[in-house]
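Internal tracking record. Fields below are filled automatically when a chain is submitted to the structure queue. Please do not edit lines marked as system-generated. If the sequence contains nonstandard residues, flag them in the REMARKS field before resubmitting.
Queue: standard
Priority: normal
Entity type: single polypeptide chain
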Amino acid sequence: MDQLKISEKVTQKSESHQTEKAYRILKAIHTALALLALALAAALTVMTFLLLDLRGENDQLEKVQASNEALRAENKNLMHKVPEAWVVHNGSLYYFSCMDKSWEEAERACVSLGSHLTSVTSVEEQEFIHKKGNGSNYWIGLNILRSSHWTWTDGTHYNEAKSKDFWAPNEPNNKGNDEHCVHFSRNRLQSWNDNNCSLTFLFICKWDCKSSGLCPPM
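SYSTEM-GENERATED OUTPUT FOLLOWS
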């Protein structure tokens, strides 16, 4: 009987550990906000050790406890923001950035997180990003920087026929002969616009859930 109880406790502990691990994966998937949250969690650990070392110093303890509570509040706030920037949709994970970057800076940011700027391959996906973007300018992965024809940074084949209805009227026009990168330009489905890659806009990264292993089981 004792052995059975021990086995049950081990099983419960294992299940609890797996649940906590899944929660962390969902909440802190390689974003800047998640990194900040982890840094704050580490700071909380440091504060705990400080509390142990300063038991006899009441004034110091009060200051440490106040800092500890502030860190906890900030950590909670950051963790709340993480899922607002990340969206799982139709087998893919999308990150909608909170800051502007040039197109190449945006692509490097996505690559540093193990992804690329998003490709768009269907009307359904265009509608999803259009709705989520809510009219803001977002860089996507379409470009002609290193090729004479449009290509996606994630290697997806560019289908000109399927994509023609995604371009804004009279686009792409390569105005000034320096518009080599594409972004969403307005709050409507026909929203793609080629523009100067050095301009700064928000950006969207995309992962395939199945191959990346970043998304929790559905």
